[in-house]
Fold this protein.
Amino acid sequence: MADFRRGSAFSASVPSDGLSCLLLSASLDQTVLLWEWNIEKNSVKVLHRCRGHAGSVESLAVDGSRTKFCSGSWDTMLKIWSAVPTDEEDEMEVEEVADRPRKKQKTEHLGLTRTPIATLSGHTGAVSSLLWSDAEEICSASWDHTIKVWDVETGGPKSTLTGSKVFNSISYSPLCRRLASGSTDRHIRLWDPRTKDGSLVLLSLTSHTGWVTSVKWSPTHEQQLISGSLDNLVKIWDTRSCKAPLYDLAAHEDKVLCVEWTEAGLLLSGGADNKLYSYRCRTSTSDVGA
């Protein structure tokens, strides 16, 4: 994918059928690409280039039906798009490309153009993380020190959670109905996204010595979550014992940039050391290991 993108890229998956899979990648070039991966042939092709942002696209989230996705950008906007491939190209204003380098002109024609279904406006800083809490609700975190809960149907904010520092990452657990956030002040905080008091923090988890770059709830245990930080550490937490993490995982030799907790019980972490680590987590709620 690197050959097709200008700037750094990251991705999300949109499962389709047993023979192929749809992938999304976002980049500093202000676009999102919708790819089709042929699993049998191990080949990829770009189906759509999603255009509409005016800044680097920082985050992606796919809805539960796998028919829509949302993007968050440095331009402070969220945009909702169709994730269903078509043979048609959306119309948009044609840009003047005559003065652009030939290599950049070539990438402009990579995939059929797709425009957003809706734009959600309200943040005053870059949108750093977002997720679908249900089919009609999106949560977004921003560098403007707020987390907003959006009504997808109306396109307006339902509530705003306010912090004191930049939010880098959020994760929602449908099991405990709590939102976890990671910030530049090194703390992990738990919120009730439906509270009327937008400044009320239910719980704070403190142990990291660097920015918390990524948080992720366990998909099977409502009290457990994982975090990654610029301090090179991955930590496993249990909210019933919040004074210290259950485990510190010190595999990375550089900053931890992202973490994931899979349905199969695997913990994943990626870092600035160009390494991806996987950890096996036991399912016991009283004794978590990796």
Residues 102-108 form the longest helix (7 residues).
